[in-house]
Amino acid sequence: MSYLHVAVGISGGASSVLTTASQARSYPGWFDRSGEHAIADQLRALLGRPGAPRPLPAPGRALVAVTAAVGCAQPRSAELWADGADLSVRWTGARATPQECLAAFKAVAVFQVPVGSLPAHPTIGGRQPDPAGP
Questions:
Q1: Domain extents for the chain?
Q2: CA proximity to 6, closest of 105, 125, 112
Q3: Considering the entire predicted model, what is its pTM?
Q4: How many CB atoms lie within 10 A of CB 30?
Q5: What pLDDT does 51 receive?
Q6: CA distance 49 to 56
Q7: At 83, which helix (H) or strand (E)?
């Protein structure tokens, strides 16, 4: 996993498969669009800006970016799993769920994977991936 951000109140984001540096640079736009500029800036720092010496994804690799509701327990890590063509995230490392939950957490995770390990037409959580950017 290359990036994990967990918080209450994340309203933006998307679940996308990013195979080029240009697509990776577009992805933070999902968070700019919803006013979550701190997350967008963190992602830009990770994914690189135009002309960055080492933009992601690295050659021969792709990024799988997932934004999802994760419930009332705050995960500390995440794992990317594949079942046929469907990719899913297992949120891990959470402490016990509190007895009372006033607001669920939402998480953003970015994984870097070998392009050859991706299915030809992947889905994420049973759905077609969102575009790279809004």
A1: 3-124
A2: 105
A3: 0.92
A4: 25
A5: 64
A6: 10
A7: strand 77-83
